Amino acid sequence: MKKKNTQNTKKKIVSAAWKLFYEQGYDDTTIDDIVFASGTSKGSFYHYFNGKDALLSSLSYLFDDKYEELSDVLTDSMSSSEKMLFLNKELFRMIEDSISLDLLTQLLSSQLITKNEKSLLDHNRTYYKLLRSIVIDGQKKGEISDGYSVNDIVKAYALYERAMLYDWCLCNGEYSLCAYSCKMLPMFLNGYFKEK
Protein backbone atom coordinates (compact mmCIF):
# COMPACT_ATOMS: atom_id res chain seq x y z
CA MET A 1 0.00 0.00 0.00
CA LYS A 2 2.87 2.36 0.82
CA LYS A 3 4.34 1.97 -2.70
CA LYS A 4 1.02 3.01 -4.27
CA ASN A 5 0.83 6.12 -2.04
CA THR A 6 4.41 6.92 -2.98
CA GLN A 7 3.58 6.66 -6.69
CA ASN A 8 0.46 8.80 -6.20
CA THR A 9 2.49 11.53 -4.47
CA LYS A 10 5.02 11.60 -7.29
CA LYS A 11 2.22 11.64 -9.90
CA LYS A 12 0.54 14.56 -8.11
CA ILE A 13 3.77 16.55 -8.15
CA VAL A 14 4.47 15.79 -11.82
CA SER A 15 0.90 16.54 -12.94
CA ALA A 16 0.73 19.80 -11.00
CA ALA A 17 4.15 20.90 -12.25
CA TRP A 18 3.37 20.35 -15.93
CA LYS A 19 -0.02 22.03 -15.63
CA LEU A 20 1.68 25.07 -14.07
CA PHE A 21 4.51 25.02 -16.61
CA TYR A 22 1.91 25.19 -19.37
CA GLU A 23 -0.21 27.89 -17.70
CA GLN A 24 2.52 30.09 -16.19
CA GLY A 25 5.63 29.06 -18.08
CA TYR A 26 8.57 27.11 -16.73
CA ASP A 27 10.56 30.14 -15.52
CA ASP A 28 7.60 31.70 -13.70
CA THR A 29 6.68 28.51 -11.84
CA THR A 30 8.28 28.07 -8.42
CA ILE A 31 8.73 24.94 -6.35
CA ASP A 32 6.35 26.50 -3.81
CA ASP A 33 3.72 26.83 -6.59
CA ILE A 34 4.16 23.15 -7.45
CA VAL A 35 3.96 22.00 -3.81
CA PHE A 36 0.80 24.07 -3.25
CA ALA A 37 -0.91 22.94 -6.47
CA SER A 38 -0.07 19.27 -5.84
CA GLY A 39 -1.24 19.35 -2.22
CA THR A 40 2.04 17.78 -1.09
CA SER A 41 4.98 19.06 0.95
CA LYS A 42 8.40 20.48 0.14
CA GLY A 43 9.90 17.39 1.77
CA SER A 44 7.95 15.17 -0.63
CA PHE A 45 9.04 17.29 -3.57
CA TYR A 46 12.73 17.02 -2.66
CA HIS A 47 12.34 13.31 -1.94
CA TYR A 48 11.61 12.76 -5.64
CA PHE A 49 13.30 15.69 -7.36
CA ASN A 50 16.50 17.57 -6.55
CA GLY A 51 15.08 20.75 -8.08
CA LYS A 52 12.78 22.13 -10.72
CA ASP A 53 15.13 21.15 -13.57
CA ALA A 54 14.79 17.50 -12.57
CA LEU A 55 11.12 17.71 -13.52
CA LEU A 56 12.02 18.11 -17.20
CA SER A 57 12.64 14.38 -17.56
CA SER A 58 9.35 13.65 -15.78
CA LEU A 59 7.37 14.59 -18.90
CA SER A 60 7.54 10.94 -19.89
CA TYR A 61 5.50 10.12 -16.75
CA LEU A 62 2.83 12.51 -17.95
CA PHE A 63 2.85 10.72 -21.31
CA ASP A 64 2.49 7.39 -19.50
CA ASP A 65 -0.50 8.69 -17.54
CA LYS A 66 -2.11 9.50 -20.89
CA TYR A 67 -1.29 6.02 -22.20
CA GLU A 68 -2.86 4.41 -19.12
CA GLU A 69 -5.98 6.48 -19.69
CA LEU A 70 -6.05 5.57 -23.40
CA SER A 71 -5.44 1.86 -22.80
CA ASP A 72 -8.86 1.71 -21.13
CA VAL A 73 -10.43 2.88 -24.41
CA LEU A 74 -8.75 0.23 -26.60
CA THR A 75 -11.07 -2.61 -27.55
CA ASP A 76 -10.57 -6.12 -28.89
CA SER A 77 -12.49 -5.13 -32.02
CA MET A 78 -9.71 -2.68 -32.96
CA SER A 79 -6.90 -4.01 -35.13
CA SER A 80 -3.32 -3.56 -33.95
CA SER A 81 -2.73 -0.79 -36.48
CA GLU A 82 -5.92 0.99 -35.37
CA LYS A 83 -4.68 0.84 -31.77
CA MET A 84 -1.28 2.27 -32.67
CA LEU A 85 -2.79 5.02 -34.83
CA PHE A 86 -5.27 5.89 -32.07
CA LEU A 87 -2.58 6.07 -29.37
CA ASN A 88 -0.32 8.23 -31.53
CA LYS A 89 -3.13 10.60 -32.50
CA GLU A 90 -4.35 11.08 -28.94
CA LEU A 91 -0.87 11.54 -27.45
CA PHE A 92 0.19 14.01 -30.11
CA ARG A 93 -3.10 15.88 -29.69
CA MET A 94 -2.41 16.11 -25.94
CA ILE A 95 1.11 17.39 -26.61
CA GLU A 96 -0.16 20.08 -28.98
CA ASP A 97 -2.90 21.13 -26.56
CA SER A 98 -1.10 21.06 -23.22
CA ILE A 99 2.70 20.94 -23.53
CA SER A 100 4.49 24.11 -24.59
CA LEU A 101 6.91 23.78 -27.46
CA ASP A 102 9.71 25.25 -25.32
CA LEU A 103 9.23 22.63 -22.60
CA LEU A 104 9.11 19.78 -25.09
CA THR A 105 12.29 21.11 -26.67
CA GLN A 106 13.95 21.26 -23.25
CA LEU A 107 12.92 17.68 -22.49
CA LEU A 108 14.21 16.34 -25.80
CA SER A 109 17.49 18.21 -25.57
CA SER A 110 17.99 17.15 -21.92
CA GLN A 111 17.69 13.53 -23.01
CA LEU A 112 20.59 14.04 -25.42
CA ILE A 113 23.00 15.46 -22.86
CA THR A 114 22.05 13.66 -19.65
CA LYS A 115 24.48 11.15 -18.22
CA ASN A 116 21.78 9.83 -15.93
CA GLU A 117 18.40 8.29 -16.65
CA LYS A 118 17.11 8.69 -20.19
CA SER A 119 13.42 8.55 -19.35
CA LEU A 120 12.33 8.34 -22.99
CA LEU A 121 14.26 5.07 -23.36
CA ASP A 122 13.06 3.44 -20.12
CA HIS A 123 11.52 0.15 -21.28
CA ASN A 124 9.71 -0.26 -17.96
CA ARG A 125 7.45 2.65 -18.84
CA THR A 126 3.75 2.06 -19.53
CA TYR A 127 4.44 3.27 -23.09
CA TYR A 128 6.74 0.38 -23.95
CA LYS A 129 4.67 -2.23 -22.11
CA LEU A 130 1.52 -1.18 -23.97
CA LEU A 131 3.26 -1.16 -27.35
CA ARG A 132 4.76 -4.59 -26.72
CA SER A 133 1.36 -6.03 -25.83
CA ILE A 134 -0.21 -4.56 -29.00
CA VAL A 135 2.57 -5.95 -31.21
CA ILE A 136 2.50 -9.40 -29.55
CA ASP A 137 -1.28 -9.54 -29.97
CA GLY A 138 -1.00 -8.33 -33.58
CA GLN A 139 1.53 -11.04 -34.41
CA LYS A 140 -0.66 -13.72 -32.78
CA LYS A 141 -3.64 -12.56 -34.85
CA GLY A 142 -1.53 -12.51 -38.02
CA GLU A 143 -1.95 -8.75 -38.50
CA ILE A 144 1.71 -7.90 -37.97
CA SER A 145 4.59 -9.59 -39.77
CA ASP A 146 6.54 -12.02 -37.65
CA GLY A 147 9.59 -11.31 -39.82
CA TYR A 148 10.58 -8.74 -37.20
CA SER A 149 10.97 -9.23 -33.47
CA VAL A 150 8.53 -7.53 -31.10
CA ASN A 151 11.40 -5.42 -29.74
CA ASP A 152 12.47 -4.32 -33.23
CA ILE A 153 8.95 -3.16 -34.09
CA VAL A 154 8.47 -1.37 -30.76
CA LYS A 155 11.88 0.32 -31.12
CA ALA A 156 11.07 1.45 -34.66
CA TYR A 157 7.68 2.83 -33.59
CA ALA A 158 9.22 4.72 -30.64
CA LEU A 159 11.93 6.03 -32.96
CA TYR A 160 9.25 7.25 -35.39
CA GLU A 161 7.47 9.13 -32.61
CA ARG A 162 10.67 10.70 -31.26
CA ALA A 163 11.66 11.76 -34.78
CA MET A 164 8.28 13.42 -35.25
CA LEU A 165 8.62 15.26 -31.94
CA TYR A 166 12.16 16.42 -32.72
CA ASP A 167 11.16 17.63 -36.18
CA TRP A 168 8.12 19.45 -34.82
CA CYS A 169 10.36 21.24 -32.30
CA LEU A 170 13.01 22.00 -34.96
CA CYS A 171 10.31 23.51 -37.17
CA ASN A 172 9.05 25.55 -34.21
CA GLY A 173 5.62 23.91 -34.33
CA GLU A 174 4.80 25.42 -37.73
CA TYR A 175 2.55 22.48 -38.62
CA SER A 176 0.05 20.37 -36.73
CA LEU A 177 1.95 17.51 -35.13
CA CYS A 178 -1.21 15.42 -34.83
CA ALA A 179 -2.45 16.00 -38.39
CA TYR A 180 0.96 15.39 -39.98
CA SER A 181 1.51 12.18 -38.03
CA CYS A 182 -1.97 10.94 -38.99
CA LYS A 183 -0.80 11.22 -42.62
CA MET A 184 2.68 9.74 -42.14
CA LEU A 185 2.21 6.96 -39.56
CA PRO A 186 0.08 4.69 -41.80
CA MET A 187 2.88 4.69 -44.39
CA PHE A 188 5.43 3.85 -41.70
CA LEU A 189 3.32 1.05 -40.20
CA ASN A 190 2.62 -0.41 -43.64
CA GLY A 191 6.08 -1.99 -43.62
CA TYR A 192 5.22 -4.06 -40.56
CA PHE A 193 1.59 -4.98 -41.15
CA LYS A 194 0.46 -7.79 -43.43
CA GLU A 195 -1.70 -6.94 -46.39
CA LYS A 196 -5.37 -7.71 -45.91
> In percent, how helical is the residue content?
55-70%
Task: Kindly report the name of the CATH homologous superfamily of the largest domain.
Answer: Tetracycline Repressor, domain 2
CATH hierarchy: architecture of the largest domain: Orthogonal Bundle
Anisotropy-based shape:
globular
Distance between the termini: 47 Å
**Radius of gyration, in angstroms, nearest whole number:** 18 Å
Indicate the CATH topology of the largest domain.
Tetracycline Repressor, domain 2
Oligomeric state of this protein: single chain
Secondary-structure class: mainly alpha
Number of strands: 0
- Give the count of helical stretches: 9
Instruction: List SSEs in N-to-C order.
Output: HHHHHHHHH
Q: What profile does the largest beta sheet have?
A: none
CATH class descriptor of the largest domain? Mainly Alpha
Low-confidence stretches: none
Beta-strand percentage?
A: under 5%
Tell me the domain tally.
2
If you average the pLDDT, what whole number results? 86
